[in-house]
Amino acid sequence: MPSYTSFLSSAIGAFLLSSPALAFSEQCSTFEYPLSCHNKSAVANTCCFNYPGGNLLQTQFWDTDPATGPADHWTVHGLWPDECNGSYQQYCDETRQYKNITQILEHFNRYDLLDYMSVYWKDDGGNDESFWEHEWGKHGTCISTFDTSCYTDYVPTQEVVDFFQKTLQLFSALDTYTFLNDAGIVPSTTKTYTYAEIRKALVQDRHVNATIECTGANSTELDEVYYYYNVYGSAQDGTYIPAQPDTNSSSCPMTGIQYLPKNLTSTPVQNGTYKFI
Fold first, then answer.
1. Each residue's pLDDT tens digit, 86-112
2. Active-site residue, selected from the candidate residues 133, 139, 159, 221
């Protein structure tokens, strides 16, 4: 029987998937431009071709102590534009380091996004707003198709709405908890899993690998998953193609990986240490 939080994720996710991006300047035909990271020569129009960050990663957290989000669901970390060789840019526009994400989304009447984020985009230090600001400022400003010049009749901060909407659209279709559960990988304080078992479980739905990361004193506690995409067209409304990771590196060991239950009796501490990557 699906949990209420899983039902909420699916229902709101379906709504998010049906919500169009705001007015976008370029009518980017899906296959008019090459798939990001697959071009043979330079592409000048970076409003219809994501460059240099052509690998878009939807990244997720499994925070256990302090715990964030529902007990049976992973939470959003962000949407990152990695370059095709695994490197990345950051803080690409100092003029758009916005400090009022909630107010921006409210201004555009996107209370649906805020409601979803209040459940699934949580900061383990207790300061969600700062987390959202960080993810936009460090990563969102480096996605070329979110540049303000890519919009017709640009309304200030409308690209921020598109960033959060697209991140949540991708996240709502990537139910990591279910992917693992279907393979018999469930949170436990006693059982451990192998790197190969976890990677195999995550490949079933998308048919490409995902990157897993671990934390803890010995880096044995599973706490992050990165899903890679290349894109035809803009990040706003292009076609996302599941892609292989641009690196095989992982902080997790080959064996003895713990997938701990969330300690939902713990309380996030305001101004705590943020997992800003």
1. 999 999 999 999 999 999 999 999 999
2. 139
Cα 185 to Cα 60, 171, 179, 193, 212: the distances in Å are 17, 20, 9, 8, 14
Cα 144 to Cα 167: distance, rounded to the nearest angstrom: 15
Determine whether 106 is an active site residue.
Answer: no
Catalogue all structural domains in the chain, each as residue range(s) with its CATH number.
30-38+45-258 (3.90.730.10)
Q: Which residues contact 217 (CB under 8 A, 6 or more apart)?
A: none
Residue from 26, 73, 133, 135 carrying the catalytic annotation: 135
Catalytic residue among 26, 73, 77, 133: 77
Q: Would you call 134 a catalytic residue per the annotation?
A: no
To the question of pTM greater than 0.85 for the whole model, the response is yes
Q: Is the peptide bond before 66 cis (omega within 30 degrees of 0)?
A: yes
Which residues are bridge partners to 82 per DSSP?
55, 88
